[in-house]
Amino acid sequence: MPTKIEKDAISGQNTTGHEWDGLKELNTPLPRWWLYTFYACILFALVWMVMYPSIPIRGLTGVTGYIAREAGTAELAEARTRAEPMMARLRAATPAQIAADPELRAYAIAGGRVAFANNCAACHGAGGQGATGGYPTLADDDWLWGGTLADIRTTITHGIRNQDDDEARTSVMPRFLGDGMLNRAQIQDVAQHVLGLSGLATDQAAAARGATVFAENCVSCHGEQGEGNQELGAPRLSDRIWLNGPDVRTIEAFISNPRLGVMPAFGQRLDGATINMLAVYVHSLGGGR
Ligand code: HEC
Ligand code: HEC
Fold first, then answer.
1. Per-domain residue ranges of the chain
2. Which residue's CA is the nearest one to ligand 1's atom 23?
3. What is the pTM of this model?
4. Span 79-115, pLDDT tens digits
5. What pLDDT was estimated at residue 70?
6. Which residues are CB-contacts of 230 (< 8 A; sequence separation ≥ 6)?
7. With a 6 A CB cut-off, is 260 part of the ligand 2 pocket?
8. Residue 226: exposure state from Cβ atoms within 10 A (0-12, 13-18, ≥19)
9. Same topology for domains 85-165+273-284 and 184-256, yes or no?
10. What class, spelled out in words, does domain 85-165+273-284 have in CATH?
11. What distance in angstroms lies between residue 136's CA and the mean position of ligand 1's atoms?
12. Which pLDDT score is estimated for 133?
């Protein structure tokens, strides 16, 4: 096929000389503004490559010597230096002193909220509302281990039933079915009695039988009326607040083979100021004493 460049009669542009089935291809030039923008981009890229990390000039940093990681580290260090006087005050004070000082308290609650989101929310929920399966809400006035600022600080520092801290809080409840102390019928009865303590029993006859089982096996830890015992970490059973419940199957399963919750110790992982901020923050969630 002969290639013949000619002027197109309608558009006034040259053709490329390509032709398919009578259709001729036009050789329309790129708009000028587009072309200059394109050249400007290439120029910008060349300058950028020389200035910033791209080609091996001055190690690998480019002529400016810029390293994003170092810039970030420096900024972080600067922020830390700026915060340090406040952190030192928060470290030296007790949570009670922090709570009593409006300036420190405001700072602690803001910092505590961030530390809580990073370290605690996975188990206790974003607002400390807790989660089913033994993760207690921290926003109510019901405490297994005590709700004063000092109690909360101790819980956070040492954790609960973990392996890494000798002073971790700990408590036990027997496995009444697993260890053969009660049979299934007795467990069903005593579960009804437990529900009855907060007026939720569905089978009154079973609950009445369960009262005897409860008196013989449970009052030493949970108290005559199921009022609980903070020294033993035994929860109040009469308040309609449950770690494991309130459906009767979950309660029966718990009495049969209790799965006791574990919380890590934060004393080694977090700075003292952060632990104090967390204690003040948790205390402020609604149930602090
Ligand atoms: C791996 C899960 C986990 C993480 C992470 C965790 N906790 Fe806990 N926490 C628990 C469990 C489980 C319990 C209840 C243990 C029990 O049955 O006694 C608990 C109990 C508590 C209690 C005692 C509540 C009471 O009623 O006395 C406090 C206070 C507490 N956590 C605060 C925190 C704070 C603050 C953090 C973050 C620094 C945190 N927890 C991180 C699992 C966790
Ligand atoms: C040696 C002390 C001890 C004895 C005895 C004991 N418990 Fe417990 N019980 C505990 C502790 C400690 C917990 C809290 C476990 C935890 O922190 O996860 C608990 C938790 C519970 C719970 C869960 C409460 C909730 O909020 O989810 C129920 C239900 C319960 N016990 C019922 C009983 C019954 C019924 C008996 C008697 C058959 C009994 N317990 C005997 C120590 C005891």
1. 85-165+273-284, 184-256
2. 145
3. 0.79
4. 999 999 999 999 999 999 999 999 999 999 999 999 9
5. 85
6. 143, 144, 145, 146
7. yes
8. buried
9. yes
10. mainly alpha
11. 7
12. 79
